[in-house]
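User: Hey, my collaborator sent me this sequence without any context and asked if I could get a structure. I don't really work with proteins. Can you help?
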Amino acid sequence: LFRLLAAETKRTVLRSSVHANTLRIKPDACDEYIEETRKTLLASLANHGKRVGVILPLSGADEGFGNAILSGLQATQPDKTFDQMFIVRDSQSNPGNIDRILAELYFTHNATAFVGGFYAREAARMSEWSEGLAVPTLLLSPRPQDAAPRKHSFWVFPPINNLAEAIVNSGMNKGWRRWAILRSAGDNPEFVDRVRTVLTQRGGKIVF
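Assistant: No problem. I've predicted the 3D structure and written it out in structure-token form, which is a compact way to encode the shape of the chain:
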């Protein structure tokens, strides 16, 4: 997973604009840190002990999401080496467990990379640990709109407003003028409202 991230850093992961009709969404790393972030990540990987600490809600209210993510991670290691590289811990759907688990992974198991942060509060603490220890970290929750740029932690999802703008701008640049917004019970109302606002600003029409 981190090898793929390192290889794609400049080409895909940290691009913020739309290229060749493909939506490229920039995660957290600020433009001023792109080169330093890449070097930090590659340097860490060069010394990587192949121990990635993974923290997911594998029990409790969000165990379905956590186990789905775990299945995706396991698919990155089809040669049955997953348990040799990844140390998986269950957050029990409780962000309050994050410090204890991070301490165990880093100080006891010598993890040199982290994956986790399913919850916003959990991601914020993981980002602080990541910066303090200079450990590359993938955070699984959307980046808060006001989050400070980080050099070692990477939010998988951009802020809600940025995501809405990127989706609308990508579609409008392709000539899509008529839009239908299909709602579900789990939709984030802030995201949908931002999509509506940006569509109106860009001259799009919501037909449904």
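In plain terms: The chain is about 45% helix and 15% strand. You can pass these tokens on to your collaborator as they are.
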